[in-house]
Amino acid sequence: MTELAINSASDMQAFGAALAQSAQPHDLLLLKGDLGAGKTTLTQGFGRALGIKRPVKSPTFTLVREYREGKLPLFHMDFYRLEGDDLASIDLNDYLAEEGVVIIEWPQVIQADLPSNFLELVLTRVDDSWDSTKRLLELVPHGQRAAAWAENACRLYQEKQ
C-alpha cells in the first residue's frame, strides 16, 4: 500500500494521467471515496492522457460511458445508483475482456464479483472545508500486475512534480 498527498484538482488529474501512461489492456481500476472526493477528476486526467478528446463525464446516471478513441479504450463505470439486478443490464465480463481499461467508481456493490487482479484507490478529503482540494490517495494493489501499475504510476507522477 502506498499513500500520496494530492493538493489540487490539477494534481489529481496529473496522477490520473500517470496511471494512464502505465496502463495496459485489461487493467481494472476501482475508485472509492465520498461524493466529491475526486474520482471523476482523476478519470478525466486518465482519459486526456489516453488521447480522448471529448469531455470525460461522470457516468452516474448512465452507469457506463465508453471512450474508444484513445490509445486504449476506456470504460468508465459508476455504480453509486446501482440497485438490485441493475448489474444484469451491464455485461461486466465483456468489458473486462476488451483490450481496454475499466475504471469503476463505487465498486463496493460488485467487488465480490470482480477478478482478483485490480488496483484499488481510496480517495479521502484531508480537511472538511467545502472548497479544499487536498486529498490523501491510498493505492491498494491486488495482484502482481496491479502492484507494478501502482509503482509505475507513482514514479511517473513524482517525476513530473
TrEMBL record:
Pfam family, one: TsaE
Record flagged with keyword Cytoplasm: yes
Record carries keyword ATP-binding: yes
Predominant subcellular localization, coarse grouping: cytoplasm
Any one GO CC term of the record: cytoplasm
Localisation per UniProt entry: Cytoplasm
SUPFAM superfamilies: P-loop containing nucleoside triphosphate hydrolases
Record keywords, A-Z: ATP-binding, Cytoplasm, Magnesium, Metal-binding, Nucleotide-binding, tRNA processing
A GO molecular-function annotation: metal ion binding
One BP annotation, GO: tRNA threonylcarbamoyladenosine modification
PANTHER family: TRNA THREONYLCARBAMOYLADENOSINE BIOSYNTHESIS PROTEIN TSAE
Entry similarity comment: Belongs to the TsaE family.
Annotated protein name in UniProt: tRNA threonylcarbamoyladenosine biosynthesis protein TsaE
GN (gene name): tsaE
